[in-house]
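Many introductory courses stop at the sequence. We go one step further.
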Amino acid sequence: MSYLGLFVCLTSLDCIYISDRSIQANQMIVAKDYLTAAGGPATNAAVAFSYFGNRGKLLTVLGQHDLNHLIRSDLANYEIEIVDLIPQQLISPSVYSIIVNQNTAERSIISLNALKSQGKQSQVPQNILEEIDIVLIDGHQIDVSLAIIEIAKKKQIPLVMDGGSWKPGLEKILPDIDYAICSANFYPPNCRTTQEVIDFLQNQGIDRIAITQGQQPILYCKAGKINFIPVPAIKAIDTLGAGDIFHGAFCNYILEEDFATALDSAAQIASKSCQYFGTRKWLTV
């Protein structure tokens, strides 16, 4: 069965290099390989969602800058529909420069977030949620997310939050989230431990919570009960975007499976992606 997912997101241009060493101060190194791709947490998730034969729709801000041609060209390969909240915008999209160390699979990233590309509730199309089966929010468009959540709750469309890191304003959307899928780096204000994060999210009314922990088992909590799901043991080449891909796969599986099974299935896909350089090659092997 094919699904239609809405991804409320930051969309960036990712310039990704892989090297056999980490770069040091005042040093220039030659990369082993290089690629460009559309990026951003929920943008990569939409591509992963399409891997299963689904359709992804991005609600984002791009505009008319020349660099957006590269973003649109990449996303067209996966038939991702783009709904541009500010099509007349002229400023550059967020550009991420990323160096992946092929020996450790660790990456270094410098970027700008979506602070300069914030949409407004008034710019959200009235029919944006027609035929939508699931919504993923990555926290970069808070005001827009609030408008989407209001409509989605009325239509009983499941809402998934990508909690990569805490972003100001997330407290406004948390009470309506159905699934909070967070990284180990997600720490709301005054939270210092994993248990405090879980308590915080439960106090917001979320009873299905998962925290990914890299190579360590996924911690998940449903109705107050904590369990763990092991992740596949692999030789990682590149972990860039693994969390994003996990979220996109989860959005597919949660429409067909229970919470724990969907998390386990998504972990298999994310682990596969880590065995290849970049955020796209895994899709074709």
